[in-house]
Write a structure and sequence with these properties.
By secondary structure, the chain is an all-alpha fold. The chain has ten helices and no strands. The chain starts with a helix and ends with a helix. The relative contact order is 0.13.
């Protein structure tokens, strides 16, 4: 965690304007992604017969109803985090096991959908941003996914400081604004993919654990509350330590490259 804080401080010192823009983007993506993730759980639970989240006012986009302070900080610094879990009462489900699985996967499904939509919108923006000759070259070389890579040479921090000369001759006149929009969309895509993959980890209280319990063990994977608490604390410590960072980064990068390569075909 401390390395993440140090990185933000170093970037802020080196390039204040670009870092502040990035921080605004990241903050928006965190809020939007976490809120929709939790709303998805509550909405699907409602459709399955459980109105608990609705009665408690959790089917709302109000961030104060959803955000967990420490989980949000971890999301900003570690790029893995959580919000307050939406309360559900499985006893209200019409089909207990099926509905429990659907509710467990709802947040992950929404995050994946947001990732795909954001990537597709980014790909379409390439037609607005870049000169036709560059797009033709990218298609001939099979390099469309490079145009959807937030860390590619076409997306240095200088761009977001207003120094558009670094892409002179590649960007259509008057379309520089679209670079900012595309960066936001690509951040949103990466953030949502990261949330989806993180929540698939079968450790309580993540969605992957609930899915594993119901789909594989048919609800019999019952843990003592004290053991559950110990596992959660240990997992939180692992997340803070950064031990999972390299593995999650590799998985996220592999999946993102696959999706960007696939969706990049529309460029």
């Amino acid at each position: 965690m401390f390395s993440g804080i140090t990185q933000w401080i170093n970037e802020l010192t080196a390039n204040p304007s670009a870092t502040l823009i990035t921080l605004v983007y990241v903050s928006f993506c965190v809020l939007f992604s976490l809120i929709l993730h939790e709303c998805a759980h509550g909405w699907v639970a409602l459709k399955c017969g459980d109105p608990t989240a609705k009665y408690l006012g959790r089917l709302t986009l109000d961030p104060m109803k959803h955000l967990d302070l420490f989980g949000t900080i971890c999301m900003l610094i570690l790029h893995v985090g959580w919000a307050k879990p939406v309360p559900i009462n499985p006893r209200n489900f019409r089909h207990y096991r099926r509905d429990y699985i659907l509710v467990s996967l709802a947040g992950i499904a929404v995050n994946l959908l947001l990732c795909i939509i954001s990537l597709a919108a980014s790909a379409l923006l390439c037609k607005v941003i870049y000169e036709p000759d560059l797009l033709v070259y990218a298609r001939e070389k099979g390099m469309q996914n490079n145009l959807l890579d937030i860390y590619h040479m076409l997306f240095p921090s200088a761009i977001y400081s207003g120094e558009f000369s670094v892409v002179k001759g590649m960007v259509n006149n008057g379309s520089e604004w679209a670079l900012y929009v595309q960066r936001l969309l690509l951040m949103l895509a990466q953030m949502n993919l990261g949330l989806a993959i993180f929540n698939l980890i079968p450790v309580p209280p993540l969605d992957g654990y609930r899915f594993l319990d119901m789909f594989v063990f048919k609800g019999k994977l019952a843990l003592d509350p004290n053991i559950m608490r110990i596992i959660q604390i240990a997992f939180l410590a692992i997340c803070i330590s950064g031990i999972l960072s390299s593995t999650l980064t590799m998985v996220n990068g592999t999946v993102f490259s696959f999706l960007s390569g696939l969706i990049g075909q529309i460029i």
